[in-house]
Amino acid sequence: MKVLVIEDEQGLAESITDYMVKDGYICETVTTFRDAEEKIHLYTYDCVIVDLTLPDGNGFQLIEMLKRLMATTGVIIISARNTLEDKLKGLDIGSDDYLTKPFHLSELNARVKSLMRRRQFGGYTEIRFQELVVVPQTRKVFVNGQPTTLSRKEYDLLLYFLSNIDVALTKASIAEHLWGDNIDSADSFDMVYSHIKNLRRKLLEKGAADYIQSIYGIGYKFSQP
Amino acid sequence: MKLLAKTNRIYLAFSLVIYLLTALAFYQIIRLLIYEEVESRLRVERRDFETYVRIHNTWSSSPYFVENKIEVVPVSKRQSVRESFRDTLILNRYDNELTPFRQLTFYEPIHGVMHRVSIRKSLIQTYRLIEVITATMVVFLGLLLLGMFWFQRRLSGQLWYPFYETLSRIKQFDLSTNSSLDLSPTTITEFNELNDVLQKMAAKMQQDYRSLKEFTENASHEIQTPLALINAKVEQLIQTESLSESQTHWIETIYQASRRISRLNQGLLLLAKIENRQFNDSQCIDLANLLAQKLADMDDVLSFKHLSIQVGPVVPFEVSLPTALADSLVTNLVNNAIKHNQPNGRIELASTPDQLCLRNTGGALTTEPERLFERFKKESSGPDSVGLGLSIVRQICDSYGLRIAYQAADGVHEICIGRAS
To answer: What is the value of ipTM here, to two decimals?
Structure first.
């Protein structure tokens, strides 16, 4: 899958690219409006990650241009501007998602994956990882073919893990993924812990392997034991 | 008191005093003149009398006539005073009224016998004259006073018109719009200077407002982007397998710190934007319902902390607020009620059409209640708290005509939002 990252901050563009490449994406990076314009005219991408404030232009114009050229390309805006007007305008002209800087790379990755799932196969797709199968459309989870009942947050948590396999996820990024930006409580990490404990117990009960590893001081990682 | 009313009042009081003094002086002068006239006539009569006595060496008087009466009384010894004038009242025998007279008394020997002679003249006509003159003067001075007063009013009204015009333009002036303050030139130098100064000030204020607005927008971008970079790099760094325990700890600290800066930055920018009134899409929003929804959204946080919710009668409490701010308001209120709660505590919500109250159980305050809404005022020094939540709530309330009140009693803290009167 081909992703174009349009971001003027070189270091951030690099980090995004590195993260995506590790996950198996083909990633290209441009830092200016002019280069981005050239790229979207020449090639087609499955997903474009675009910053709104570019040194020589506005991200909104790029999105409008892109939507005229190739309407099926997924667009995710990453911007330091967090006003409601910007978000609404972004969605209005055809972008699929809006992430406010600073964001977690794992969150961006999860959003890209979710977007790709929605775009491809008419939205019907299963996520498989070893003996786990998740059907996002019906929000059902199967372990070795047996259905497993998860709470809303546990399901979101599992999907977040499955989008970021083999990646160390910070507690903060998990908390923000589950409860949004507004979670401002010191208890959120304890709540993350409690949800992870429940998820792990439920998966183990159905006979899955113990995929969730705790990383000291940082957070958790979902990977082969 | 209005400027014109005030000047008119002072003018009126001052004029009254002056006019009264003038009237008094006028009265005295007329009186003096009349007395002088009467007295000179009395002296003439005295000469006539003396001449008569010298020629005839006798005097017969008829005491019948009151007017111009000359009274001659023999006296044994002559008084030391040669002649004296005095006022006297004499009873009019027909209408039984006392009539004022001026009387000249002197001593004259007739047939070698000293007599006291009193000649008097009625003052009744002159008194009437004074009355008429005084009355006329009062009427004319009064009319003059009223006329001046009316003229002054008209004149001041016209003179001050540019001032009131300027005042009403300033009142209508809105800093956040792009239209500049237009004040029409006048013929009065001082008002022109005033208008000039005001226009310059308004232009400066607008420019400051614009640059402040741009600053908050740029600051947001310029600070959030490096923070995004730090976050991204830290996230990449923690993917490294061979991190020692202390390295992990350092990374975690960096990560937490950058997240705190980010929150702080967002909070301060939000406050600045509310202060600058950069939100202007106010809508009618039912805060009570929004708050109830927010509480429902937080159900897993609430159940995790074993907090129970009691939603009392939720009557719509409708206020006019920008959507984004209404959301920020209720989020901060709910977060505050959760954060400062105690295990197995309660959160209660009640509303009336004029007031919305959120109560939560919690420990006693360590700071003064009034300082709770100040920036960076934290009850607990948790690393996750930047201490801006309640000041954002306060700022939103202050800027959009709402009143916020805090009360604590018996371990129950209550924050009420009502309409500012």
So the answer is: 0.85
